[in-house]
């Protein structure tokens, strides 16, 4: 008897015993998308038309095998059952597609924001380079300044010689 008490505490309620059915919602969603995709094809419409025409023909012309006479109540019941399953499956497939579209849209927005940030950065860098290039001495400007200095050089030499003589004369 003491060994029973070691396995289970009597002061706490027992966990309820439940039969749990587990399913993979992704698998169910994938199946519903396949079914919804099939419902939207010409192949489905063709085979459904063949089925309905065969059903009606057998029940109208093969009177001894008529399991569903003229008002075709059983056929209407089959259509109602198909519609009651098809509508939620199609809605589930659309919801899954909406979720994928939402994720894709968020990724596109993030990518667009990153592209805009990169473009803004490159535009600032290009503007800085244009300003820096505007301050760089060009060959034509340098050539013009050298020509001007060459023209002014004889006058500058004579002025410098006069200043030297003047300072030498004052030193004596």
From TrEMBL:
Pfam families: DUF1003. The keyword Transmembrane applies. Keywords: Membrane, Transmembrane, Transmembrane helix. The chain crosses the membrane at residues 44-67, 73-93. This is DUF1003 domain-containing protein. It comes from Saccharopolyspora rosea.
